[in-house]
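Phage portal protein: structure tokens wanted.
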Amino acid sequence: MLFHTEKRDWAQDYIDQGILPGFSNMPSYSGIGALRNSDVLTAVSHVASNVARFPIVILDDDKNAVKNIKSVDYLLNKHPNDMLSAYHWRFLMTVNAILTGDGFSRIIRDPHTKAPLEIQYFPPSQTYIDDSDVMNIKYEFTPINQKGGGQTIVVPAEDVIHFMFFTYDGIHGRSPLLSLADEIGLQDDGIKTLRRFFKSGLKGGLLKAKGKLSPEARLKTRKDFEYSQRNSNAGSPIIIDDRFEYSPIEVDTNVLQLINSNNYSTAQIAKALHIPAYKLAVNSPNQSIKQLNEDFITSDLPYYFKPIASNLEMTMLTDRQRHNCHIEFDTRKETGMSMDDVQKGVTNNVITPNEGRVRMGLVKSDNPDLDRFQSTLNTVFLDKKEEYQKQSTAKGGGIDDKRLGNSTVDDANSDESSN
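Answer:
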């Protein structure tokens, strides 16, 4: 680990990259500034909350059973550091990875065992990736103190958790919002048009003056007219003298309706961020909310889950653990097998009752009998059928066949005699 005094202008670097909003008149379609758009805010918060709410589990590759690695489970699901809960840490990391392309956290390890002890979050504005040597990537963290400066911490890639959902070089992430500049701009322009229309108080009109006016006179006449009407409200009378003729401009309300009902930009934002369009108030397909939610978890969220799990495997697990385990987000409580499907699987000897409980998202039972395959006495293997019939005939019939769920002629005769 290396320390040196930081000399670069970090803020300007990230203003130039669009990660932090600048002071120019150009709108920002990525970074924190993008959250001014309500659709972007809704989409980002929806994805981040789903990444944050599902538990992260370590599964055995062979048995697909949950492995208990306490230090990793505690940091990822409960308490990564003294400042943040696990939910807010994952929420922050996901929000930054979407808005800026990257989410960064430093892993503080035990100096002797190298086990992870703490996960320290850093915003992108305090992080720089040194990729001068692509075979030896370094991350430079510069925390900002109250005086404005800070000492830079240089750590290797294996000690950094790096969330990035789209990348073209494996080193730097790219925000999907960079591809939505036209769509977000179109939506913003439509909203501004509506604001100007209603802010004007519906008083737009045409003022005709008698005689020929110079450009300067026209400007002065307009300013005088606007000044005389400055305290009036919508619907107030307009006072003019006999030198002028005023007529209101008719506004095509169809244009305003088109602006207000334009769902194109909203649908494009939903598509780019991999969320169902109905979450942004766009009409959804003819499916139930449960079906839409399950489809979102199984089809769209893996776009976020897989990169996160892959990076956590490389940084939080040892090489030996990676050979035997893998990390996943546990969504079984919402997408697991139903009770009916588990019952069918147990009845058909596909799974054991305990495997069914695990697939439903329930805790595995300690009852050893639930780890055995279940069967009934009403079934028999086809290659054993003739053998059982011979045994039944030799013994007089009836008893064994009843046990197998079959009825014989002797059984029927005995029942008639008893009656």
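The chain has three domains: 1-193+261-335, 203-250, 382-418. The first strand starts at residue 2 and ends at 5.

Cheers.
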